[in-house]
Amino acid sequence: MAGVLASVATFALVGLDSSEVTVEVDVRRGLPVFTVVGLPDRAVREARDRVRSALLNSGLDFPQERLTANLAPADLRKAGPSFDLALAVGVLLATGQVPRERVRGYAVCGELSLGGALRPIHGAVAVSAGARRAGYDRLVVPVENAREAALVPDIDVLGVPTLERLVDLLKGEWSPEAAKPAAPPGEPASGADLADVRGQGDARRALEIAAAGGHNVLMIGPPGVGKTMLARRVPGILPPPSFDEAVEITRIQSVTGLGDGRLASRRPFRAPHHTISASGLIGGGVTPRPGEITLAHRGVLFLDELAEFGRYTLEALRQPLENGFVEIMRGQRSLRFPSQFMLVAACNGCSCGRPGGECTCNAADRIRYHRRLSGPLLDRIDLVCALRPGAALELVSDGRARPESSAVVRERVTAARERQRARLRGSPATCNGAMDARLTQAHVKLPPDLQTMLLTVARAGSMSFRGQHRALRLARTIADLDGRDQIGRDDLAEAIGYRLGAAEAVAA
């Protein structure tokens, strides 16, 4: 007896994108064996038992014949349980339980329970974008993923609760409404407030400048002076993400399993432990997955105890900090993960970490400690500020001199970002910190006296070419915070001061 062949479209996650996979199911006489080929991993091979139980428990037939399912293209590795639904539909098509003409224009993706219920999957936004790119009109996903997948325009996303209801849909006996996209981000929920921080005015100023321009910042000081407390309040002074940025954040969180099915309303904040590996920070693995720098995309990456991170791990940060993305090669495939994040780092002044006269480190100990931070890495940090223990009275609140709240600072930061967005419209950069050398030369103009001032510092050997460009971007941000189109002497002097802080750290 000739076999019966049927096919249905689904999608496999490849990095942060998805690639079309055609599930071909062949049914013919023979021993009742269900074989899945096409580079499936263990989770995909186990789909055979889930599909069989889901069909039978949904009142559908499972053929007692030889079944072969091919996942094409065969050279693309398939991972995860999201192929369950496509395999089940392929069996239904091959056995005539669903009319074939009803499946045209559909793509399906979902995990099945043994009872036939559809369970949510990772990467619904990426799957939906892939389906639209491949020209499909409708995408069937679990109900929990429908609003997330509907963030992609120009494709009808249908949320289906069970396999039984999917059969009704394909037979024309049930017609659900297309899912509505998740609501756009509103005002972010209140969190840690900058008003909680007493003293450390210099560090507050540095973080405000860094947030306004998307610059990298390093805080150096003894334990307990507020470095971590300040860093955890940086997301509260950043402007909320735009709709496109929120979709980017949601997509990354969805692929990595961190999403909750809703559109992201706040910028991410990631704070990995210093024992993290290079692949955990940058991304990688046998099946490449995004690292912490990608999870912090459009947000903040906080590296506490910076000098305690592995040297190789820190050096791997250099290229992503400069390029805004990281490329990973696996199995003759190159995957690009975005990594446009704001780096906030903190470390002690020496290995013992004690302040002032209590320090027990000699000169050799300090040199050894600071050598853990290479010059090329520090050259990519725009602001370096020192924190010192504050006076006891600064920690006492008398109810009259409360520091500025995050909301007040965020208004200034948002206004500065709007100025930058208008200036950089039409370019890939969205803030001063993301400008490359060409954009810096085009948008940062210094009068002759300030050019002389910068050249004097550079000729003294205190600043590299990269450092000069970063000082210019920093000065542009300081002027934007004050609402001025022209960079002033004080703006450039403040920017150079922060850059010389980096040079001093390298020299130490």
How would you describe what is shown here?
- With 508 residues, this protein is of the alpha/beta class.
- The chain has two domains: 4-170, Ribosomal Protein S5, domain 2 (2-Layer Sandwich); 194-392 and 403-419, P-loop containing nucleotide triphosphate hydrolases (Rossmann fold, 3-Layer(aba) Sandwich), CATH 3.40.50.
- The chain has helices spanning 42-45, 47-57, 84-94, 124-133, 143-149, 163-170, 201-213, 227-231, 243-255, 278-282, 292-295, 311-315, 318-323, 363-370, 375-378, 406-423, 437-443, 448-459, 465-481, 489-507; strands spanning 4-14, 17-28, 34-37, 66-72, 106-108, 111-112, 118-119, 138-142, 156-160, 217-220, 269-270, 283-284, 289-290, 300-303, 325-330, 333-338, 342-347, 383-386.
- A hairpin with a 2-residue loop joins β15 (325-330) and β16.
